[in-house]
Design a protein that fits this description.
The protein is 27% helix and 23% strand. By secondary structure, the chain is α+β, with helices and mostly antiparallel strands. The protein has a four-stranded antiparallel β-sheet, with no helix packed on it. Keywords: Membrane, Transmembrane, Transmembrane helix.
C-alpha cells in the first residue's frame, strides 16, 4: 500500500510488509528518478518517509499520479 500526501507535508510510503530487498529497490528508484527528494528514512515501525525540498510543487506531485 502506497500513500502519498497531496499537501506539502512529507510523503508517506508504507513498506512495513515489504522485504528489505524490495524496499532498497524503491529507494534506488526514487533516488534516481525523483532527484528532488533529499530526506529518506525508514522509521522503527517500517514506514518510509519521503520529504520533498521547498521547491516541491504540483508538477512534482504529478510524477506519482500515474
Amino acid at each position: 500500500m502506497i500513500v502519498f500526501d497531496t499537501q506539502l507535508r512529507p510523503l508517506i510510503l508504507m513498506v512495513k510488509k515489504f522485504p528489505k530487498r524490495f524496499v532498497n529497490k524503491i529507494f534506488y528508484f526514487l533516488k534516481g528518478v525523483t532527484y528532488w527528494i533529499y530526506i529518506l528514512t525508514i522509521r522503527y515501525d517500517g514506514i518510509l518517509v519521503l520529504i520533498p525540498p521547498p521547491t516541491y510543487d504540483i508538477h512534482t506531485q504529478a510524477l506519482f499520479n500515474h
